[in-house]
Automatic annotation (TrEMBL):
UniProt-listed NCBIfam families: tonB_Cterm (TIGR01352)
Record-given protein name: Protein TonB
MF-aspect GO terms: energy transducer activity
Residues of the signal peptide: 1-21
Source organism of this protein record: Cognatilysobacter lacus
InterPro entries to which the protein is assigned, alphabetical: TonB, TonB-dependent_transducer, TonB/TolA_C, TonB_C
Annotated membrane topology: Single-pass membrane protein
Length: 101
């Protein structure tokens, strides 16, 4: 995997900014898979997502706030964030996932 992509994802995942619960502590983070067609085309971009964490620490809902370019990285970002887990407590968060080669 490309180092700059891994670094960008690590930065993005480390920047989980809770919208309401300052106590969101990540336990498991899954990196998004770079879409093969975007990689072949050399496409880079980002996806901003908001997510809800249930009281058990599982991500209950994910929504895309913005993405550039559109319809390229959203599915990969949502799929990854849905697999994240947090310490029990619940809350809401927001994060930007960057996709770069």
């Amino acid at each position: 995997m490309n180092r700059s992509f891994v670094f960008a994802v690590a930065l993005a995942l480390g920047a989980v900014l809770p919208a309401q619960a300052a106590d969101l502590k990540p336990v498991k983070r899954v990196e998004p898979q770079y879409p093969p067609e975007a990689a072949r085309a050399g496409t880079t971009g980002y996806v901003d997502v908001e997510f809800e964490v249930d009281p058990t620490g599982k991500v209950a809902a994910v929504s895309v706030v913005s993405a550039k370019p559109t319809r390229t990285f959203e599915q990969a970002a949502v799929r990854a964030v849905k697999q994240w887990q947090f310490e029990p407590g619940g809350g809401k968060g927001k994060v930007r996932l960057s996709f770069s080669l």
